[in-house]
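Reopening this one. Same input as before:
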Amino acid sequence: MNIDLFTIPGVDVLANVEQLPFPSNIFQRVECDAVLEHVRAPERALDEIRRVLAPGGYLHLVTPFCHPFHEYPRDFRRFTIDGLRELAGPMEVVADGWRTGPTATLLVFSIEFVKLLLPFWDGAHYRM
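Same output, byte for byte:
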């Protein structure tokens, strides 16, 4: 089941992660990928995720760190692994690490720099 703030292809439920429309203890797994940097109150979001996770359930939590500003609809913050551990509160961390390394980060920032130099090119559309 995919949840988002907006109706786009692939979205099953419109909801805000800070107030999920589900009963408690319902999900065995929750995927929260590149969401928390867009949330005004990440502590409340994690409280909601913990609420809907069934006992023994797993949360896969991914946030960008070295990533350019990207609104959808807002971009508020970045998290370190230590910050995510603190945010997870009483949850047991079973694994942590980085999904992208310095090469991917350098590539992303290089593309953003090129977009500054060539404002007519946004990386997805070309004009003739």
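So the earlier flakiness isn't reproducible anymore. For the record, Strands lie at 3-4, 13-14, 27-33, 53-62.
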